[in-house]
Request: fold
Amino acid sequence: MIDAPAPQSASRPPARAALLVALVPLAAVTWWLAGSLSGLLLMASDSLADLARSPSGSPVPRPDVVALPLISVLGLQVANSLLGGILAGLLGRVARGHRPALVAGATLGGVVLGLAVVLLYTAVVPGAGGVWPPGSREGVAIGVSVVVSSLLGWLLGSCVVLGRLGSGAALGALAGALPSWLVGLSLAVTDPASLLDGFSTTWTTWAGALVLVAALVVVGARPLSRVAWWPPVVVLSWLVFPVPLAVHYLLVEALVGPLGTPPLWRVPGDAVVAALRDPLPWVAAVVVAAAVSVGLARWRGVRRPAGGAGPRSA
Reply:
């Protein structure tokens, strides 16, 4: 009976190592799925439309599934790869108790693995890269943009291993990237005819605002100095998508040239338009987060004396 705990304690290191190893494929699948979900939904929607057509209708060409993170709409490539990287980095939260550097390295390995598989697949399989062959300047520009957006997302998401402030920053980045990603999902399942008839994506901004509330509550307001971190988190959530989008267009412009891309003087305007979202959801998020933080602080303050009185009376 005394020697029984020994095998249990001896089995812990392999189990902990197995968790880190499992994070690599899990992060790779998470990145790919986030980058491919809008394309997968579009393919499913097209398949349903084909079923509704007469048998004489010509089949709709399907994109290559593996290469979906690379062959979506240009603006959505940034949103998809950025959010995929953030979610992959956030997976480090499940490995609490491990060294932060090891956890971040495991999730980074997963993102790099996913990128390598997609890029190599499009380079080897003919036609897998869509309309832009991998060896062309357009294909290189898109590939580099997806890599940069994915790694930036991973870097922001991996802040979750740095404690409450890092977790708040990671959730703030998620709040800023989520609305554009949700817009892509909405476009994938929406009838094109309805886009001209009152189609609205306002709800996506409110969804991001809800995540921003969680980010600010995680940062907290106790001690009061933590409130000084709220403005950086809000600014991060506001700019996390427009800035990579501007870099994306500048990169395409530099590698491809002006043909088929926005002129250089329009690129900052595209980023500004992406940043000019309705501020009301973000303002509401700050107000709600402040109210929740105050309520939590008071609730904890009430519980502490009650919890401390129990042992003394006993």
Q: What stands out?
A: The mean pLDDT is 80. The radius of gyration is 23 Å. The chain has one domain: 17-43+63-302. DSSP finds eleven helices and no strands in the chain.
